[in-house]
Amino acid sequence: MLCLLAAAAIGIGSAPAADAAPNKGGGKGDSGGSTDLLGNDVSWPQCGKALPDSPAFAIVGVTGGLANNTNPCLSVQLAWAEEETLMDATGQPNVALYVNTANAGHAGSWWPDSNVYPEDVDDPDSVVVDNPYGECSGAEDAACAYMYGWAKAYDDANSRGISNPEDYLWWLDVETENSWSTDKVANAADLEGMTDYFESIGADVGIYSTNFQWGQIVGQVSADSSLAGLPSWLAGARTANGAKNNCSAAPLTPGGYVSVTQFVSRGFDYDYSCI
Questions:
Q1: CATH of 3-270, one of 3.20.20.80, 3.40.30.10, 3.60.21.10, 3.30.70.1270
Q2: Which of 56, 117, 153, 230 could be joined to 194 by an S-S link, Cβ 3.0–4.6 Å?
Q3: Rounded to two decimals, what is the model's pTM?
Q4: 3-state class of 147 per DSSP?
């Protein structure tokens, strides 16, 4: 994951030199003057690195930078999160997950051509998905985008080594770094498909982005969208105090709320709980 700015992205390991590293131990941070408990999010960019001690909460990347691959360090990082996080230190789950998202269309490695997934009808888990956009027939439209999102969420929950996926909060990482359609309705449908799958197994869902990037990819969604009311995890701050201030920013979708904000310091993403 990249910590996103409104006009540019600051990559992992490229935090502004002026930022002091948050103090270790209990996830407390003094970067920018904050003394609040901080969490961390980690994924493939931190493979092989020593991870922070005792974060207040942890968010682990399941995918490896794309919507269709796996974080090669997932099991190690998930074990770190389960062992190191402080118990119930904030209003956040002790451990949550995030996944990369995209709507690549025919340019991707796979694109659906029906409302059935898994596609092998002999697979006992294969189902005909109740698609609110109608029948997917292989076109780059909202119906197939919905199926693509639903299928990627299915794969994330069932094919990447996550035990009890229903027990986690799954954050959808929405960034312009990944491939998206110019059709914002189709992009929203893709994310609705992911949301609907995760919620169908009893999991909670949230959205990670910035208001700028969300506007570029999805824009406004209606109040009856399954994206409406979801918690927002906002990137873009440069310090812990900046992240804390972003708790008062507008959420990404109507009826939602800002739950977490993020900043980068010395190669790691730090997260402030707004709840």
A1: 3.20.20.80
A2: 153
A3: 0.90
A4: helix
